[in-house]
Amino acid sequence: MSKLLTILLCLALVVSCKKLTDEDLWNNGVEAQKANKFDESLQNYQQLLDDYPKSPKAPEALFAIGSICQDQRRDIYRAIGCYRRIVQEFPTNATASGAQFLIGFLYNNELKNLDSAKIAYEDFLRIYPDNPMAPSARFELENLGKDPNLIMDLKSRPIVKTPEQNPKNLHK
């Protein structure tokens, strides 16, 4: 009798442990992230990637993992790895251009690896030349290695034109 009861309990567990859909895992991850339950959120997103690697939610899950690793966990290498996977596995997804830009940003601003940042920004401009973030990527490239305080100081100064540069003075 106890064998039968054990078998019935196991069957009940199997039936009740329905596999969550990719949508369920995504929604659970989002809700946990909103509640600042980042470990739970990461588990849901990772489960989505493990169970549904071709899901339309997979690039968004990777981006969410990268974002949590970047902002809450300060695990910059894992964040870069997630962003890189998006660019490699889902290059046409809406998150891919932002992921490529963030690779350069993290190499530059967090890891101070100017060579890798330069490559990432150049790749961004090569792959996404018409993206609205292209001017920002060009700006980042032009200012790699420069002191951010000096860059901001230069941007806040008014542009002073020489008489030759001022079109109003050309006819005097």
Order of helices and strands: HHHHHHHHH
Amino-to-carboxy terminus distance: 109 Å
How many β strands by DSSP? Answer: 0
* Proportion of residues in extended strands: under 5%
**Principal-axes shape call:** elongated
Number of helices: 9
What structural class should be given to the helix and strand makeup?
mainly alpha
CATH class label: Mainly Alpha
The radius of gyration computed from the alpha-carbon positions, rounded to a whole number of angstroms, is 24 Å
Total number of distinct structural domains = 1
Q: Share of helix among residues?
A: 55-70%
State the low-pLDDT regions, or none: 157-172
Q: Name the CATH superfamily classification.
A: Tetratricopeptide repeat domain
CATH architecture: Alpha Horseshoe
Characterize the main sheet. Answer: none
CATH topology: Serine Threonine Protein Phosphatase 5, Tetratricopeptide repeat
Average pLDDT reading = 85
What does this structure look like?
The chain is mainly alpha-helical and 172 residues long. The chain has a single domain (20-157), classed as Alpha Horseshoe (Serine Threonine Protein Phosphatase 5, Tetratricopeptide repeat). The protein contains nine helices and no strands. It has helices at residues 2-16, 22-34, 38-51, 58-73, 76-89, 96-109, 114-127, 134-142, 148-156. Helix 2 (22-34) runs antiparallel to helix 3 (38-51), helix 3 (38-51) packs antiparallel against helix 4 and helix 4 (58-73) packs antiparallel against helix 5. The protein is elongated. The protein starts with a helix and ends in a 16-residue tail after the last helix.
